[in-house]
Amino acid sequence: AITLIDTPGHVDFTAEVERSLRVLDGAVALFCAVGGVQPQSEKVWIQSEKYGVPKIAFINKMDRIGADFFGVVKKIQDILGANAVPVVVPMGRESAFRGLIDLLTLKAITYADDVSSAPPQESEIPAELRAKAKKWRANLVEKCAEQDEALLEKYFENGDLTEKEIWSILRKATCSRHVVPVYCGSAFKNKGVQQLLDGVIKILPAPNEIPPIVCTQNPANQRKVDDNEVLSALAFKIMSDKHMGKLTYIRIYSGTLEAGTTVWNSTQQKKQRVGRILRMHANRQEAIEAAVSGDIVA
């Protein structure tokens, strides 16, 4: 299961963003294809770097007038100093935006005007776009090869890498924050979202792949991401619910939290009973008996 936290990027919600970034394993940075890297985007990016959060980028609103995918990629590189690497490139833009070219599979993905009535169609890349696809595929392979000496040597010999090798090094380079894979589409019309979700699964780190949690006061005191470890969790948000009363959102870093048990609150220096544990959905709450390392629950 994946826990998603949607935070506003506006400066008025800086504290909210900080809380969320503190507990995330990976993030999707959203950019407007027209507006590009805006001041609040830069602010949130700096905050994410502060907490060492691996990121992939999604350039949205490719169907808007003034959309410029490659212009936004360059701004991400120049303004944010990120090694932004397109994993897909758009076919057309503004009202002519009709789909994507997947640079890993080298296939064209075309969307109908009404995505709900017809699934995306995968086909060969149109002849007029093959040179463009070849150029950006070479860019992707080169950027990946730079991250691994063995693959760099193979790239020099063969001039290309396999899809499996690209996914592998892309994941490794993203988790180490040396590369920021870039996707694009139109979220409102559900175009390009499928490829983005594939990227979240294949590229961003899982909870058990993050380093152990280190105590700031005693670095020798560490907690591995393990359900059998001693419980350690961070309360990062308090919210009032009209049905449940006060809800405390927590991220579990190690161990298992069970409903009805007592935990030690190190901030208030006292024991507290855990009444109910809720898994929060967009439109409902689900009561669960226990939460394990990597979970974000209330």
Q: What does this protein structure show overall?
A:
It contains 7 helices and 19 strands. With 298 residues, it is α+β, with helices and mostly antiparallel strands. The strands form 7 sheets. Strands 1-2-8-3 form a 4-stranded parallel β-sheet, sandwiched between helices. Strands 4-5-6-7 form a 4-stranded antiparallel β-sheet, with no helix packed on it. Strand 14 and strand 15 (270-273) form a beta hairpin. The longest helix is centred in the middle third of the chain and has 16 residues, at 130-145. The radius of gyration is 21 Å and the shape is globular.
Order of helices and strands: HEHEHEEEEEHHHEHEEEEEEEEEEE
Q: Indicate the low-confidence ranges by residue numbers.
A: none
Mean pLDDT across all residues, rounded? 90
- Rg is 21 Å
Strand content: 25-35%
> What percent of the residues sit in helical stretches (DSSP H or I)?
25-40%
Structural class by secondary-structure content: alpha+beta
Main sheet attributes: strand count, strand direction, barrel closure: 4 strands, parallel
User: What overall form do the CA principal axes indicate?
Assistant: globular
Say how many strands there are: 19
Widest beta sheet: strand line-up: 1-2-8-3
Query: Could you give the distance between the termini?
Result: 16 Å
